[in-house]
Write a structure and sequence with these properties.
2 domains; Rossmann fold
Length: 295
């Protein structure tokens, strides 16, 4: 991708992401992630998406307009995005690859966070940390991160979640919201994931392509492991083989979802062919309901 193509793609993502954020996502984001901090700081006028439980009824009655209490944590929220850029993210059987969807979801969430004046940091990783951008604020900061995601050429094809999660703990000591984007096609990351979930507000975003679970019903195809380069032929007319692949996909997905529940991390599974904006909105609303039930 040359510089002109890169700039065009960044502008396209910016236009569509900001429109979605302004119209739909910002309020849902605020309601889902703006928790009550430990230190009261001020009051401000109510905005769409604010938690009604934070309404200051005395100020509301005095001014005639609804106001909410504002807490220190609300103004100091920091988000870290950990994005897997290993070779398996380039796989696609539809218009968008897993890496494309990750960059577009990142843009939506980052603009929503920027709309609320939050800090945003970025870590790109394969089986090593390939890029680290310190938390910052503002539209230009978000655009710089989008450009880096789109233009970065990975040094390695492999995946190691442990390396990335260990790095996060070193650069961020205080609690923050952490989005981990990956297809989770790797092993032995449970301990590191559990440790991060204990100290951070962790959201695991699993990205998948429908061909990873459903093969064509006819023909013999060659499948290459994008990370190891291993190639093997598969007979798609073999019904038992197709069923085994589907069942394995379902079991692995269920295992990860159950593990996230066990360690108190959020889990969001996004397929490359689906409308991820509606998935995000549904996720935010369910998270807000869970938070309300926990009080």
């Amino acid at each position: 991708m040359n510089q002109e193509e890169l700039e065009k793609k960044v502008r396209h993502i910016q236009i569509h992401s900001r429109k979605a954020v302004i119209e739909t996502l910002a309020g849902e984001y605020r309601s889902s992630f703006k928790g009550m901090g430990i230190e009261f700081e001020d009051v401000r006028q109510y905005q769409h998406g604010d938690d009604v439980r934070t309404i200051d009824w005395n100020v509301t009655a005095r001014t005639g307009k609804p106001h909410v209490k504002q807490f220190m944590e609300e103004r100091e929220l920091t988000l870290f995005f950990l994005i897997d850029i290993s070779a398996s993210g380039n796989f696609t059987s539809v218009e968008k690859s897993k890496k494309d969807v990750a960059s577009q979801i990142f843009a939506l969430l980052a603009f929503a966070a920027s709309h609320n004046n939050d800090n945003i940091g970025l870590i790109l990783f394969s089986n090593e940390v390939e890029l680290y951008i310190k938390p910052g604020k503002g539209k230009n900061h978000v655009l710089n991160m989008i450009e880096n995601i789109l233009s970065h050429e990975p040094k390695s094809r492999g995946t190691d979640l442990n390396v990335c999660l260990d790095f996060l703990r070193k650069v961020r000591r205080n609690r923050c919201v952490t989005f981990l984007f990956s297809d989770f096609m790797t092993e032995d990351f449970e301990d590191a994931l559990s440790s991060v979930a204990r100290n951070y507000d962790l959201v695991c975003v699993k990205l998948s392509d429908f061909r990873e679970k459903e093969l064509p019903t006819r023909g013999i195809i060659e499948i290459a492991d994008s990370e190891t380069g291993e190639v093997r032929a598969i007979d798609c007319t073999n019904k038992k083989l197709r069923e085994n692949i589907l069942q394995n996909f379902i079991e692995q997905d269920k295992k990860l979802q159950e593990f996230c529940l066990e360690i108190d991390a959020d889990f969001l599974h996004v397929h490359t062919e689906e409308d991820y904006l509606h998935r995000l909105i549904s996720f935010f609303r369910n998270r807000s309901l869970r938070s309300a039930d926990a009080l």
